[in-house]
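Case study: YGGT family protein.
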Amino acid sequence: MIGFIVWAVNSLINLYVFLIVIWCLLSWFPGASQSSLGRFLNQLVHPYLSVFERIIPPLGGVSFAPIVAVLVLWFAQRGVQMLSLLVR
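Here is what the predicted structure looks like once written out:
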């Protein structure tokens, strides 16, 4: 049972990281964020990224918030994996 929960959490984190990467790539193309996919991803990703955007201001017009957000997700993922080892 614990193995399935860890697998599900890892899969969700991987999916969310993938969505953040796609959201970032869409920002490179003019008008892509106005598409239906862009608006959908913005609704999913922006609330989480806005936490980091308040802490880390853009430098030279480039936001490093997505990088920090992905790192936090990866650390959370490793934490879940370590907890699963302690439970076994």
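For the exam, be able to explain this: Residues 2-87 form one domain.
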